[in-house]
Amino acid sequence: MGPPPLKQIGPVMYEVDKSFREDMRVPARVLADAALLEQIRRDKSLEQLVNVATLPGITRQAIGMPDMHEGYGFPVGGVAGTVLPDGVISPGGIGFDINCGVRLLACELRREELDDRLEQVVHELSRSVPTGYGRHGRLSLSHGELDRVLEEGVPYLVRELGLGLEEDLELIESRGSLSGAEAGCVSERAKQRGADQLGTLGGGNHFLEVQSVDEVFDLGAARSLGLAEGQVTLLIHTGSRGLGHQICTDYVRSMDQSLARHGLTLPDRQLACAPFSSPEGQRYFAAMCAAANFAWSNRQVLTHRAREVFGRVLGKEGARLRVVYDVAHNIAKLERYGGRELCIHRKGATRAFGPSSQEIPPAYRGVGQPVFIPGSMGTSSFVLVGTDASADISFSSTCHGAGRAMSRSAAKRQVRGEVLRRELETRGIVVRCPSNAELAEEAPVAYKDVERVVEVVHRAGVATKVARLRPLGVLKG
C-alpha cells in the first residue's frame, strides 16, 4: 500500500480517511501548512499516525500537530483519545520521557538591567544545575522520601522540604500532583535511576534558557499572565529523567507480552498497549502518574536553584522569579469530551484548555491556559493561550515545539558544535553545553520553523499567540 493520501479539509487541516486501511477505526488528521506537510512526509510519522488510528477504543480521530515527526510507535506530536473503561492505554503514546514539559518563570527585571551580568547568570546556572545524561543532583532522597515525591509530587517538596512557595502550586498543571500515582507500581530499577536526579536537566533537547519578551501580540492576555515587553524570563524544559524512561521500558515489555491474552492485534509492536481497565493498564497508569509527579518535582527543584542563582547575581529583585505556568507535553490524562471519559494521550503535544475551563488557575479563566512553545537555540519561543474551540478540534491540544526536521546523527554530520557555539555567541547568546557534539545535535537547522508551526495552530484556532520570547543565554543538557 502506498503512502497515506491526504485530503485538505480546512485551511490548515488535512485528513487520511478511515477507508484508506481496513483496520483504521477513525480518520487521521494533521494540522499543517503546505511547507510543514512536505517536511512531515519525509519520515514515517504520517504512517505512524495512521497506525494510531487503529487502536482499540480510539474515538473521533487521531491528530498530528504541525511539529509532528517520527517517534516510537506514536509520532512525536500525536494526540489520541480512547474511550474508558476498555479503550487502551499505550506507553508509546506518552513516550519514554514521561511528563517532559516546560515551565516559564517571569523576573521583575528588564532586559537592560541584566547588562554585563548575563554571562555570570548563565555561568552560575551551569554550576548549580547538573546537565548531560546520567548526571546526579545535589538532592539525595531516601527510599521513603522518593516514594512521597512519586505519590504526592510538588506539594510534598514545597510543604515538607521548603523547595518553593505555596503560590507555585496553583500555577502548575494539576497542581503538580496526579492522585492516581502509586509508588508500588514503579520498579526498583526505576527508583534507583531517579533517586538522585531531582534538580538535573538531562541531555538531548532539554535546556534552561534566559530570555526576554521580544514582542507582545495580545496585550490583554499578556497582562493576565504578568508579561510585558522587555521583561526577563526563564524557560525550563526537562522531564522525568531515567526514572520515567525505565517505567516506559518496563511497561512496554509487560504490555507486549500481554497482547495475545487481551486479544489485541497491532500493526506495529511499538504500539504495545492494554485495556485501561486491565491490571496492566491500571498499573502502567499508576506508574505514569508517579513519573509525572517526579517530573513536575524536578522542574520545581530547578526553579528553586534558579531563584538561588538569580538572587546571588541580581539581588532581591532577581530572586523573585514567579511561576507563570508549568505544562506537560508527554502524558496521558483522564478528561471528559461529549459526556464520555477518555484517556487522552499527548506525546509531544501540549494541553490547551480554553478560557471557560474550570481546570485552569482562576487567574487565567476568561483568558485561557498558558502554552509555551520552545523554538531552538538561536530562535524564538512563544507564549500562547488555549481556546475553547480546541476541545472539538484536537482534544484541547496544541503543538509542543518546533519539531525535529532532521535526526540527531544527520545534524552532527552537517553542523560542527564549536562553530555553532561561536555563531550563537556572536549574536549575543551566551551558551553553556558540556559537549560540542550534543550542541550540534540541537542546532537550529535540525528543527522546523517555529514561527510557521505556531502560526498554524493560531490559524487552526487551537491556541492563540500572546508573546514572542528571544533567547539571551542557554544552558543545554
What's the gist of this structure?
With 477 residues, the chain is an alpha+beta fold.
Would you mind describing this structure in some detail?
The protein has helices at 34-40, 45-52, 111-114, 118-128, 143-152, 154-161, 166-169, 188-194, 219-225, 241-258, 279-314, 316-319, 390-394, 408-414, 417-426, 436-441, 450-460; strands at residues 7-10, 13-16, 28-31, 62-69, 76-83, 88-89, 101-110, 207-216, 231-238, 274-275, 322-328, 330-337, 340-347, 350-351, 370-373, 381-386, 397-398, 430-432, 463-476. It is 34% helix and 24% strand. It is of the alpha+beta class. The relative contact order is 0.18. The strands form four sheets. Strands 7, 8, 9, 11, 15, 16, 18 and 19 form an eight-stranded mixed beta sheet that branches. Strands 1-2-3-4-5-13-12 form a seven-stranded mixed beta sheet, with helices on both faces. A two-stranded antiparallel ribbon has the order 6-10. The protein contains 17 helices and 19 strands. The chain starts with 6 loop residues before the first strand and ends with a strand. It is globular and about 65 Å long. It has a single domain (7-405, 447-476), classed as tRNA-splicing ligase RtcB.
Outline the fold blueprint.
Layout: E1 7-10, E2 13-16, E3 28-31, H1 34-40, H2 45-52, E4 62-69, E5 76-83, E6 88-89, E7 101-110, H3 111-114, H4 118-128, H5 143-152, H6 154-161, H7 166-169, H8 188-194, E8 207-216, H9 219-225, E9 231-238, H10 241-258, E10 274-275, H11 279-314, H12 316-319, E11 322-328, E12 330-337, E13 340-347, E14 350-351, E15 370-373, E16 381-386, H13 390-394, E17 397-398, H14 408-414, H15 417-426, E18 430-432, H16 436-441, H17 450-460, E19 463-476
Parallel strand pairs: 3-4, 18-19
Antiparallel strand pairs: 1-2, 2-3, 4-5, 5-13, 6-10, 7-9, 7-11, 8-9, 8-19, 12-13, 14-17, 15-16, 16-19
